[in-house]
Amino acid sequence: MASSKAKKTKPAAAVDRPSREEAEAAVRVLLRWAGDNPEREGLIDTPSRVVRSYEEFYAGYQIDPRELLARTFSEVDGYDEMIVLKDIRFESYCEHHMVPIIGRAHVAYLPEHRVVGISKLARLVDAFAKRLQIQEKMTVQIADTLNEVLQPAGVGVILEAAHQCMSTRGVHKAGVTMVTSRMLGTFRTDPSTRREFLSIVGNPGVVAVANT
């Protein structure tokens, strides 16, 4: 089970990125491996299109999630109730098969001294989603980063997602949703706080709890 005290989220390790030309050449190799001719008319521009799409799919590697939360507000007239942003649609990519994970995130925190703009919560989800991921790890990363930067009384994160590595290959089970959660602080220790959060987001069935 997850501890109410979050471990510090480690920053992504720097990698030696190949050039765009090298990336496009790799796509041509994959096209040939699949059994097609990368020089035919329909595929001639595919390598450059794939590389451009990868820049969008994996844009999270170029974002520092902590910087997204750096600007906070303390003038909230004593507001100390739960803040919830629910149904944040996200698109991520399975690190095992590089196929989409498409779902919704519900993010909540109980402020103590400061709050952050609501758009930053959505951007925080995208910063981790736009990477090669597993859902359990992404759940922890979102919750722990929010907890580290804002230092609220508690944090709750729930992800619900469909994995195309399961629906389009392997067991071919469409319509299956995976649910993961991470509860910190009062969301973990106070059952009434947790119930309020689950009630607000529609009581999703938690089938997996992300561990530290």
Sequence-ordered SSE layout with sheet pairings:
Blueprint: H1 20-34, H2 46-57, H3 65-68, E1 72-73, E2 83-94, E3 100-110, E4 115-116, H4 118-129, E5 132-133, H5 135-150, E6 154-163, H6 164-167, E7 178-185, H7 186-189, H8 191-201, E8 208-209
Parallel strand pairs: 2-5, 7-8
Antiparallel strand pairs: 1-4, 2-3, 3-6, 6-7
Overview of the molecule:
The chain has 212 residues and is an alpha/beta fold. It has eight helices and eight strands; from the N terminus they run H-H-H-E-E-E-E-H-E-H-E-H-E-H-H-E. The strands form two sheets. The chain has a six-stranded mixed beta sheet. Strands 1-4 form a two-stranded antiparallel ribbon. Mean pLDDT is 89; it is low at 207-212.
Protein traits:
212 residues; alpha/beta; six-stranded mixed β-sheet; two-stranded antiparallel sheet; 8 helices; 8 strands; 37% helix; elongated; disordered C terminus
How would you sum up this structure in a few lines?
The protein has helices spanning 20-34, 46-57, 65-68, 118-129, 135-150, 164-167, 186-189, 191-201; strands at 72-73, 83-94, 100-110, 115-116, 132-133, 154-163, 178-185, 208-209. It has 212 residues and is an alpha/beta fold.
